[in-house]
Amino acid sequence: MADGKIVGLDIGTSEIRVAIGEVDPETGNVQIAGTASRKSAGLRNGVIVNIEDAKNAIKEAIDAAEQNAGTTVESVVTAIGGSQIESQNSRGTVPVTGSNKSDKEVSRADVERVIQYSTAIKVPDDREKLHVIPQEYIVDGVGGIQDPIHRIGIRLEAKVHIVTAAKTIIQIIRSCIQRADYNLDAVWLKTLAQTQSVCHQDEMELGSILVDLGAGTTDALLLYKGAPVATASIPVGGNLVTNDIQIVTGISNSNAELIKVQHGCCWLPDITPENDMQIVVPGVGGRDPDIIMQSQLCQIIQARMEQIFTMVKSAIIRNTNEPISQLTGNIILTGGGAMMQGVLDLAQSVFQTSSVRIGIPEDLGGVEKDYRRPDYATVIGLVLANKSLAQSKDNRKHGKVHSSKPEKRKSGESKLKKIFKSFF
Ligand SMILES: Nc1ncnc2c1ncn2[C@@H]1O[C@H](COP(=O)(O)OP(=O)(O)OP(=O)(O)O)[C@@H](O)[C@H]1O
Ligand SMILES: [Mg+2]
Question: Which structural domain, as residue segments, surrounds residue 150?
Fold first, then answer.
């Protein structure tokens, strides 16, 4: 990584995306210097299955982003999701030692000890801890504390969320990136990175579910009281919707993808006899063009997307004790599938709430604003989540001591971010 730069790399099943962010050393604000997206290769359902193909696609995407940003980069941060991720809640308690014998104020050392204690769970040899995220601290039975330092008490308890990933998957990702001649600085849970670009602090407090509608996988993260409480992933995404269209209509897969993106809709009530239209699909190998009604297309898409949302909802319910019907935040949709017409209505119907919105990364400057789409949530989130990395590298270069100045980005700037600054 060149100094002051942070490069987010999202290795998706259908697209590889890159965002190069530049951190202003004075204000700590991030500006997006350039982005790029290239067709992915060598992946199946979010997992790299052909290292050489994936490496070439990664190199191409980073090269293109470097050109767009007019700069070169040395290292990247990336994200993983899918079935290789597992997460669990844990807790631990320690006595408060205080900074000296006479007081019993919680010190930074106490917080570090309680985190260590609550994360001392046995992780199988083939997995590694990706994140340890404090959810809340409890001092002498009083809970809901986000920053316990200087609280007076005897017993300090921490509740944490631990995310683990398969070691081999991380090794494969690192190997691809290194073969493409870049270093890998950090690996984030994909949905957690996305919270940094699209979630607001208040909705994470009230209880929200972020749903990433990808091509090969659909991943979800349940947030409550400002922190993650459960993850879920199903190995099904937009590619299956395209396959359904191909199978039912008999058109080619590339035409099915084209008409899905251009005319697809997943909420049948939007299509009435008055506005239903004919979609002309070019015939294969000189055959006559096919004609498909948009309502027919919509029926196919809605059936599969309804199933995807239902599976996500069930997986989240399975993985948490929180009654999700009582969450009062939002369902936040990201990923390419969030650009489908009618997706808000369908999600509202399945999750039985009107609080559904599309997660679009906020405006972070830059000449091109092409990253303001739900499928850029991961790369922009990665840049925002890791900007302290760029700052510390920059400071090291200039001989400064690293100080992570909290900056005011929006209400979503916050606890979650401060927590990450402390622990990663
Ligand atoms: N305008 C659109 N309407 C409907 N679907 C769309 C639209 N644009 C993209 N998609 C779909 O979104 C999916 C790609 O989303 P995305 O780029 O987030 O996936 P990915 O990151 O490559 O995959 P994954 O996260 O599963 O590894 C594809 O299935 C694509 O057909
Ligand atoms: Mg994706």
Answer: 86-164
